[in-house]
C-alpha cells in the first residue's frame, strides 16, 4: 500500500487480506483491491480509510473509499455490503498504526552512507561506534560519543562531551549543546535544540539592566523519546532537565530549565512548560498548553488544548480553560460564558422593573458600571 502522494502500482492487498491481517470482521466483499491509504474526503475507490467515531461514520455515504477500518460498535449509515467493505476491529486507530508500520517498511528511506561524510568535522577525541552514519556538514565536538547505529543527518551539530545512545536518529539541523545526553532509539526531528540556556535573568533596576543567571546543568533524554521539529529543551540551572523514557513531544514546543517529564508523557504542538515543573507519568498536554513555572502535574492528568495552567494538578484529573480549572468547574464556567450576553439583558430588564416599582438599583462596585461612567 502507498499514500496518494506516492505513485501507485498494482494493488498488493484486498479487503479480505486486510481483514485477515487485522483479525477483523469483514462486512462486504473480500476481493476489493486496495492501492493506498486516504482520508474519507480524499479517498478513491481503491483507497483504504478508517472510521473511529460516529462523526466520521456519517461521512461514509459521501466518501468514494472502497474499504474502511471501523471501531466495533460504531454504526455506519448508508453502508452497502454488496459494493463496499468495512473491517470491524476493536480499535481503528491501533489497526491503522499496524498497517502504516507495514507500509512504511516498503517506502525507501534515505540515510547517510555508513561512516563519516567527507565534509563532516569530527573531533579526534570523539568516539564513533561501528555502524554510525554521519552525514554531510555535521560537527561532532570533543569527547562526544556516538553509540552503535546512530544516524546524524546533514548539518547536525553536537557540542563537547555529548552522548548519543544506540540507534538514535537526528534529522537535519539538530543542535545538541555540551554535556547533554540523548538516550537510545531517540528520534529528533529537524531543528530540535537541546541544552540552550534556560531563560533566567534578575532585573537590576538601579543599573537599568538584567543580570543573566548562568545555567551549568544539562539535558538528559531517556530511551525511545521522540521530539518534533523546532522544539527546544533548555539545560538546567544546577542539575539536568530530565525527559523520561517513551516521552513524545510535538513540533514547536518549549521545555524550560530543570523540568522533569515522567514516563510516556505526551506534549502536543506549541505547548510550553515553565522552568522547574514536574510532570508525572502518562500526562497528556493538549496543543498550545502553557504551564507556569514550578508547578506539579500528577500522573495520568490531562490538560485540554489552549489551557493556561497556573496551579498544581492532582493525579488523574482533567483540566482545561484559561486559567485552567478542573473539567466540571471549567465546563460550568464555559456554559455560563456562552450565556453571558443573555444574562446581561435579563439583569437589565430586572433592574428597569425594580426601578419602575420604586426600588432603586445601584451598581455594587465600579466594575458593574457602564464604561465611561464614574
Task: Spell out the key features of this protein.
374 residues, Udp-n-acetylmuramoylalanyl-d-glutamate--2,6- Diaminopimelate Ligase, Chain: A, domain 1, UDP N-Acetylglucosamine Acyltransferase, domain 1, twelve-stranded mixed beta sheet, 5 helices, 14% helix, 28% strand, flat
CATH class of the largest domain: Mainly Beta
Shape type: flat
Number of helical runs?
5
CATH fold naming of the largest domain: UDP N-Acetylglucosamine Acyltransferase, domain 1
Sheet with the most strands?
A: 12 strands, mixed
C-alpha Rg, in Å?
28 Å
Helical content band: 10-25%
Average pLDDT, all residues: 92
- What are the segments in which pLDDT stays under 50 over at least 5 consecutive residues? 3-11
Strand order of the largest sheet: 9-12-15-18-21-26-29-32-35-38-40-41
Structural class, judged by helices and strands? alpha/beta
Amino acid at each position: 500500500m502507498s499514500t496518494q502522494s506516492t505513485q501507485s502500482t498494482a494493488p498488493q492487498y484486498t479487503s479480505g487480506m486486510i481483514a485477515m491481517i487485522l483479525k477483523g470482521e469483514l462486512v462486504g466483499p473480500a476481493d476489493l483491491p486496495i492501492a493506498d491509504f486516504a482520508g474519507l474526503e480524499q479517498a478513491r475507490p481503491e483507497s483504504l480509510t478508517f472510521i473511529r467515531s460516529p462523526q466520521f461514520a456519517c461521512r461514509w455515504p459521501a466518501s468514494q473509499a472502497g474499504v474502511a477500518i471501523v471501531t466495533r460498535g460504531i454504526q455506519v449509515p448508508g453502508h452497502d455490503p454488496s459494493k463496499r467493505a468495512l473491517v470491524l476491529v476493536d480499535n481503528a486507530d491501533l489497526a491503522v498504526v499496524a498497517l502504516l508500520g507495514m507500509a512504511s517498511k516498503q517506502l525507501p528511506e534515505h540515510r547517510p552512507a555508513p561512516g563519516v561524510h567527507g565534509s563532516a568535522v569530527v573531533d579526534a577525541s570523539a568516539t564513533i561506534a561501528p555502524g554510525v552514519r554521519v552525514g554531510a556538514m555535521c560537527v561532532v565536538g570533543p569527547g562526544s560519543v556516538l553509540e552503535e547505529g546512530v544516524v546524524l543527518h546533514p548539518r547536525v551539530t553536537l557540542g563537547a562531551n555529548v552522548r548519543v545512545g544506540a540507534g538514535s536518529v537526528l534529522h537535519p539541523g539538530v543542535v545538541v549543546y555540551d554535556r547533554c545526553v540523548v538516550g537510545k532509539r531517540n528520534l529528533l526531528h529537524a531543528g530540535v535544540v537541546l541544552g540552550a540556556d534556560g531563560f533566567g535573568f534578575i532585573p537590576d533596576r538601579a543599573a537599568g539592566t538584567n543580570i543573566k543567571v548562568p545555567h551549568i546543568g544539562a539535558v538528559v533524554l531517556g530511551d525511545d523519546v521522540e521530539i518534533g521539529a523546532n522544539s527546544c529543551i533548555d539545560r538546567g540551572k544546577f542539575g539536568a532537565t530530565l525527559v523520561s523514557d517513551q516521552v513524545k513531544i510535538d513540533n514547536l514546543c518549549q521545555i524550560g530549565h530543570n523540568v522533569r517529564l515522567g514516563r510516556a508523557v505526551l506534549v502536543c504542538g506549541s505547548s510550553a512548560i515553565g522552568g522547574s515543573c514536574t510532570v508525572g507519568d502518562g500526562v497528556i498536554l493538549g496543543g498550545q498548553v502553557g504551564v507556569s513555572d514550578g508547578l506539579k502535574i500528577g500522573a495520568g492528568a490531562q490538560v485540554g488544548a489552549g489551557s493556561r495552567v497556573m496551579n498544581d494538578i492532582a493525579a488523574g484529573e482533567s483540566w482545561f480553560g484559561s486559567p485552567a480549572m478542573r473539567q466540571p468547574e471549567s465546563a460550568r464556567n464555559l456554559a455560563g460564558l456562552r450565556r453571558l450576553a443573555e444574562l446581561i439583558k435579563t439583569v437589565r430588564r430586572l433592574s428597569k422593573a425594580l426601578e419602575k416599582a420604586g426600588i432603586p438599583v445601584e451598581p455594587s462596585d465600579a466594575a458593574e458600571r457602564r464604561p465611561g461612567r464614574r
